[in-house]
Amino acid sequence: MNQFVFKSTAKTFLISFMILGILCMGLTWFSDDAIHSRFWTNLLHNSVFFTGISLMATFFIAVCITAYAGWHTQFKRVWEAFGSFIYVGLGLMIFIGITTYLHMNHLYHWTDEGDVANDAIMKGKAGFLNTNWYLFGTIIIGGTWAFFYNRLRALSKAEDEHGAGVNFSMHRKMRVYAAIFLPIVGFTSAAMIWLWIMSLDAHWYSTMFAWYTGASWFVTMIALTILILLYLKGNGYYDNVSQEHIHDIGKFLFAFSIFWTYLWFSQFMLIWYANVGEETIYFRERYDKYPILFFGNLMINFLIPFLVLLRNDTKRKFGSVGFVAGVVLIGHWLDFFLMIKPGALHTAHSALGKGGHDHSDAAHGAHDGGHGVADAVAHGAHGASEFVSGFTLPGFLEIGTFLGFLALFIFVTLNSLSKASLVPENDPYLGESLHHHV
Description:
Elements: H1 8-30, H2 37-66, H3 76-83, H4 86-101, H5 113-117, H6 120-124, H7 131-162, H8 169-196, H9 209-234, H10 243-274, H11 277-289, H12 291-309, H13 318-352, H14 359-362, H15 373-378, H16 396-417, H17 430-434
């Protein structure tokens, strides 16, 4: 079968999880503190996570086109389908940008003009860390990503309709767009990572953070590719996607899990060794107050992929590769949780600690089995080290929100897959993919 049919049963299943996600977001809002810090961080966390996955899929398509690679051609439509989420992700990030511009959320410490005026470090970064650049930078750069995705997707579908042609005219156009897109995404993705995630810890900086976050996005994209391919093969599609293809994708999962670990250790070791206060505090905070996530991050995202996929034959076993892919998906979602939540919690402490908010409302906190942010504020400085549900560890509301976003991402992916043939039969590199052997 070369045409995916998005059945109503699959749609109903995914929509039910999307409804669960919406309910969890609603419960988070109504059970949250006065500034709804848990709600906004959950929205930012999942929006950034899945937007980055779609960006990495488009990026890897461009890499393969530029490198004259053909091994992936049979299932490249899966990556094209991942890329279609960029429209949804861009809409979510623009929404966060608008609410940041209008000071409707308290995600970022640098949005408080009074604090910036009295802080030499934040004042020095104000040319980049400001609400205008956050909103309009997101629109311009995100719109650029969407434009290049649209062109690559349109040309790929055009090959189906008109044929590759003797002169490979469609594919040559794709190479031009891919070659232009690669340097653009290389520089702009770093800028957006600094703005969306790194600036949550406004005093902190690291020259490796964009690489680290990009690697986390990429390895998660590879993990989702494996899971979607196994789902499609289990439903009778992609018969020609063999152990050889899964083996190669498994190698990417293995290699980039190690690459992510290399970046994690390099960033941590260099900053810890230099012992510069503005840099070290990022890791000190997480090392002391989030030890389960800090050390669990390495266990899940390095040790499990390394130990399971080290043997060459393991990467040919669908069950083993699928298991690791599922673990890595959850592990890197937790990685982004650890990037985002501690910095946002400090901003929430600062905002709730000022006299302009109704602390009688805030005192209700976040219910979900732990103390709210307002409860931590009420305990003063000691409160920062106490358990704060939805910040110290993900609660049920965070898990439900994640499942809702994951269902949305898969829904958009499967819907996009149903809009074109699964195998691009007129792609000039299809023969290489059909006869791929390692």
